[in-house]
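Box 3.1 A note on notation
Throughout this textbook, protein chains are presented in two layers. The first layer is the amino acid sequence; the second is a token string describing backbone geometry. Keep the layers aligned when reading.
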Amino acid sequence: MLRSANVRRVSVVGISGSGKSTLARQLAAILDVPHLELDGIHHQPDWEPLPKDEFRRVVGAEAAADGWVIDGNYGTVQPLVWARADTVVWLDLPKHTVTRQVIWRTFRRVAGREELWNGNRERWQNFFSWDPGQSIISWSWHKHAEYRARYSEAAAAPANSHLRFVRLTSRRDVDLFLSGVRRQGPSAERPFV
């Protein structure tokens, strides 16, 4: 059980297309803390990755703050985030749900020429590619089991015993989780999960 009064620094993780950023934005608004999307820092113009040392520096500075919700799965910075986090919210939705979500999201972004981060946009060729290095849809499909194993192990690891893990396995779980947080507010003494 978590008490929302003790929740100030939350890491939201899960496979691409699971709804991390949407959940993280909603949770940050409810807790009245900043939201940081790691993709927005990592992906520089023309999809160039921010150099690892600079990425770690920027994320480390953000994670040093008193309260936040940070979403993303980057192994390069996860130790920095988790060292400061009090809670990890893991979106572990079924593969078919994630696939449906990531296909729709990608289509919407490509067709609408939606700017993601730093001027970057998804491309039609990536929508139709089956190369996980080029297509977020393929990445999500091929890596789903790997992410489930990774976060199952992380939740059980003694090194992470300072973290509270909240595993959400359905859209209903997500809705119940958020409604519980909303109902109790950011400083309630009652458990919200």
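Residues 187-193 have pLDDT under 50 and may be disordered. The radius of gyration is 17 Å.
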